[in-house]
Specification:
- The protein is an alpha+beta fold and 324 residues long.
- It folds into two domains: 201 residues, Jelly Rolls (Sandwich), CATH 2.60.120; 114 residues, Orthogonal Bundle (Arc Repressor Mutant, subunit A).
- The protein is built from twelve helices and eleven strands.
- The chain has a six-stranded antiparallel sheet, sandwiched between helices. It has a five-stranded antiparallel sheet with strand order 2-5-10-7-8, with helices on both faces.
- A hairpin with a 2-residue loop joins strand 3 and strand 4.
- It is globular and about 60 Å long.
Length: 324
């Protein structure tokens, strides 16, 4: 097991911290981009450790306001890396977005995503996180079909969920030199726990691979702008019973109504951070995506993203000007 090494932004002058952090994280994982709303207060550090074929990093990030990490289609296409990354939330919360899905991780929850495809990570406040880099071949050798499990939250209260955090925390500490082969044994045990967690998740995720559920989602996405959309109308358009519709979403760990509001909020967030849409008022953006009450939209947006829609747009605009 290699000794821990790391990086901290405090080693750099304030105006170089975002660029330095971007380079350090890209060097550790894969090429990616960072958008930080409040770079003047940004403070972060990472502690890295390699364990056989696995690479573990513990992150702490604060003072950034909202923060996005993106891997574009172009970056993924020109990269030679073939990894799954696993994010385990330790404090705060963070989003994983890939393959048209989004999940927000609470402390103790984890999700995987694929470096061969575009992805986005989002954070709305200070957080701590452990990230494990896993070669695709290592995980697929234990569990096929992992590509269908990206951007899905594995619960913290299952047995694999309860085991994973203390294992990663212990492996992140400096430990005495081990006998040859011990690192490989520990990495194998860690992958066994992760595989067990993904097997349970695959059972929850099965409805998303069901044609009926895909039809429901497609019909919902086509009608997000309609504030009068009812679950009964959605079920009828998708050709399922209302009871079946509720069962399909329940298997995903959420309600149909909550999922629809999440998609509407996500669509609004994308517009608010788009400089080309800066002429559209907050109310227009909300109403164009199915909200009929501006105050309700503002409350829901603040609850999810940690600030008001207008403040979020201001921060994103300021960050874009600094990058330009």
């Amino acid at each position: 097991m290699a000794h821990a090494h790391g990086f901290a932004t405090l080693s750099l002058p304030p105006h170089r911290r975002v660029a330095g952090w971007t380079q350090a994280v890209s060097d550790r994982f894969v090429e990616s981009g960072f958008q930080i709303a409040e770079p003047e207060g940004f403070d972060a550090d990472m502690l890295n450790r390699d364990l056989a074929a696995l690479s573990l990093t513990r992150f702490r990030s604060s003072g950034h306001g909202s923060k996005r990490v993106t891997r574009s289609q172009r970056q993924a296409a020109r990269g030679a890396e073939e990894f799954f990354l696993l994010n385990l939330q330790l404090a705060g919360r963070g989003a994983v977005r890939q393959a048209g899905r989004e999940t927000w991780l609470a402390p103790g929850e984890f999700a995987i995503y694929d470096t061969r495809r575009p992805y986005e990570l989002a954070y709305d406040a200070d957080y701590r996180q452990a990230v494990l880099r896993i070669p695709r071949r290592e995980l697929l050798a234990r569990l096929g079909g992992c590509d269908a499990l990206v951007a899905r939250a594995a619960a913290a209260d299952t047995l694999p969920g309860r085991l994973l955090q203390p294992m990663l925390m212990a492996l992140g500490e400096d430990m005495p030199a081990s006998q040859p082969g011990t690192a490989g044994d520990l990495a194998s045990a860690l992958l066994d726990v992760i595989t067990a967690g993904l097997r349970e998740l695959r059972g929850e995720a099965a409805p998303s691979l069901c044609p009926r559920f895909e039809r429901v989602k497609a019909q919902a996405m086509a009608r997000l702008q309609d504030p009068s959309l009812t679950l009964g109308a959605l079920a009828q358009a998708a050709g399922v019973s209302l009871r079946s519709l509720h069962q399909l979403f329940r298997a995903q760990g959420c309600t149909a109504s909550r999922w629809i509001w999440q998609q509407r909020l996500t669509a609004c967030e994308r517009v608010l951070r788009d400089p080309a849409a800066s002429h559209r008022t907050i109310t227009q953006v909300a109403f164009e995506h199915g909200f009929s009450d501006a105050a309700h939209f503002s409350r829901a947006f603040q609850q999810r993203y940690g600030c008001s829609p207008s403040e979020y747009r201001r921060r994103c605009g300021a960050a874009a000007q600094r990058r330009g």
